[in-house]
Write a structure and sequence with these properties.
There is one protein chain. This protein has about 180 residues and is an all-alpha fold. Helix content is about 70%, strand content about 0%. It contains seven helices and no strands.
Length: about 180
């Protein structure tokens, strides 16, 4: 199946596998330059991934799946975003750099597990709710391209549920307009 043929869940799972591979490569890397390149690659992929989930997939799930699961996903994203911003601003020579990347990897591993659980996971619940996975995938692919451009230019990850965030957008069941940023 090609990337263009994937439905929303397959697309999100493909993103998960890509980031897992980047973190695995980071664990094996020995040079500072290689570690920094891989860490930044993981951070970029995660910023884009959280954007398409938060702007398109999660709003479609609001009211269709367990609310606690969805709310926890936003908070998990926000915790990861804080680490992502710190990692991007740091250097492999800095104290705790490897530890921060490792903790981010573990946080993402937990988050992915919550989304992908067979019966009670977010993806399974979204499928059971009958969401239009093909339409969501089309919207996510389009937003992914613009988000990649935004974040490659150095835009930081912006938490929504933490102090100063945009909790209202996180509670919405309407997707954000393409290219619209949450208000903070």
């Amino acid at each position: 199946m090609t990337y263009e043929e994937m439905d929303a869940v397959a697309l999100l799972k493909a993103d998960h596998r890509k980031v897992e591979d980047i973190f695995a490569a980071f664990e094996k890397a020995t040079s500072s330059s290689k570690k920094q390149k891989l860490a930044h690659e993981a951070c970029l992929e995660l910023k884009v991934h959280t954007t398409i989930e938060e702007e398109i997939f999660y709003p479609a799930c609001r009211g269709q799946i367990e609310e606690d699961l969805l709310n926890e996903a936003y908070v998990e994203h926000d915790s990861a975003k804080l680490l992502i911003n710190e990692i991007e601003a740091a250097s492999p020579e800095d104290d705790f750099y490897d530890a921060k990347v490792k903790v981010l990897s573990e946080m993402i591993e937990h988050h992915v597990e919550e989304e992908e659980k067979r019966a009670e996971g977010m993806f399974a619940q979204a499928r059971a709710a009958g969401l239009d996975m093909d339409k969501l995938a089309d919207d996510m692919r389009a937003r992914k391209m613009t988000a990649m451009e935004d974040f490659q230019s150095g835009k930081p990850a912006e938490p929504r549920t933490l102090q100063g965030g945009d909790e209202e957008s996180a509670m919405s069941d309407e997707p954000l307009a393409p290219g619209a940023a949450p208000t903070a």
